[in-house]
Here is the input.
Amino acid sequence: MSLLVVGSVALDSVQTPFGSTADALGGSAVFFSMAASLLHPVQVVGVVGNDYPMDRLERMTKRGIDLTGVEHAQGESFRWKGKYSYDLQNRETLETRLGVFAEFKPQIPKEFRGARHVFLGNIDPELQISVLDQVDDPALVACDTMNYWIEGKRDVLMELLRRVDVLLVNDAEARQLSGDWNIYRAARWILTHGPRFVVVKQGEYGAVLVGADGIFYVPAYPLEQVFDPTGAGDSFAGGFLGHVARSGDTSGENLRRAMVYGSAMGSFAVEAFSVDRFDELTPDEVTERVRAFSELVRFDMPPVTESA
Amino acid sequence: MSLLVVGSVALDSVQTPFGSTADALGGSAVFFSMAASLLHPVQVVGVVGNDYPMDRLERMTKRGIDLTGVEHAQGESFRWKGKYSYDLQNRETLETRLGVFAEFKPQIPKEFRGARHVFLGNIDPELQISVLDQVDDPALVACDTMNYWIEGKRDVLMELLRRVDVLLVNDAEARQLSGDWNIYRAARWILTHGPRFVVVKQGEYGAVLVGADGIFYVPAYPLEQVFDPTGAGDSFAGGFLGHVARSGDTSGENLRRAMVYGSAMGSFAVEAFSVDRFDELTPDEVTERVRAFSELVRFDMPPVTESA
Here is the structure.
């Protein structure tokens, strides 16, 4: 039940109130696969420039992440530089240098084309469609997108959505895409345009899964220390798809569990810079955090006796 | 197990994208008691001016709400006028006329002094303390406050907190009070200053209960139509305290259930202007919505088999 991700492999320079990183591992495919690989092997398709510190990707291959689909192109690697506010609520992009990512044309290696589960990281929807044209018959396709494509390539994005099972977006993106500020109406609108499920991520609050058969809410894990929110969304997607791929179960019931794995992985991601937290993370720690969600939302409603 | 609320009895004029009201029933004691009275009888202490449309309070007495503690003073009633943004995310206060509320000195009628459960609505912490001086020995005291008192009467507020079991605030208030932007650290700080439990309300997202023995998260009920957010917090408090008073159980386990009743009542409040939604509301509808929360957060985590 192979799991394929197509997305960016980048170098992030991030400033938070707690410190900063320079050219640290980043990008949607990196966060996704570091999170997902704790649950299931991952195949990555992406591109790096000839300046990319390939030795530092060993931490990924060590995790069973297959990087043979990462193209090595002449030029600079994708770099992103950002700065967070004192309370991590807002971030400012200081610099984006696309480098070789600007010309990225995903080529899915022959041995990846039978992927059963596919995550399309946030790239041009035309490229996301080209990925789907290259894979055989996945059981579940999930994708991310962003304001830039919603505004600039709406028609292509809508064409993509018709071929996608799960759209994972944040609340602002769901609102922009649907033109509706109510996220539940927005999700319902999206459901009429292709996806069977919509995941609306709400950052520090949690995330909502909306499908034809109901709504599921998972809170964010309560953290007293957040170091760097970068990559939380892609790590969420990694936990979500990693669980689906591991179980091979795409039912709504199982997607509820996938949401909990997503929220757990998102919470690990923000506990350290870059993907550092995933290096040391053990399957037991993942299981423990996932189980903590049961306690976080647990309540027993006894038969109501009306004394009023 | 009587339930006492002390707070404002006001006239609200509210503009939302969906319409407007003029001099509608409002105020913390009104929202609180309309919500709570669906679960348990409520005793109200407050003040109105001689211009208050007393006949319109019949909807409260009809609900078993005891208004004999509402003082009739010479002068104008408390009026608030506000306007919400198109997405209901922001509101602007257009006018506040305290009227007789400016001179409000809560007098707890003798027959209310044995109250087992007390909610101190958002008023001057000096007055909140004076209420506690007048009641015998409540099993649980909960209070609300706001930025104005946190800034202007911090010392008195901290004195009040030492006598309170549950503080219910929104996230901005928790941050301001503790000086910490992380709401879990903020809540823990508050727990070291008196209350056994802190409820941090997060508006459209949900609410968190933090106590020494754990954290409980209840999402906001997913609504596709929100008409008027006014009074959601006080209705939450009404559901919370109403459940506690009805059950007579102040354990952490039962406060989890109380949170769900709180979130349910908050969701009803915003479905109509003023307290209109509570007029027609039946105990069955309340039970149905409370039970829907179980489904909203339900997931079954089967024994994990590591195939990775």
Chain B touches chain A through 52 residues (CB under 8 Å). Residues 252-269 of chain B form the longest helix (18 residues). Chain B is about 35% helix and 25% strand.
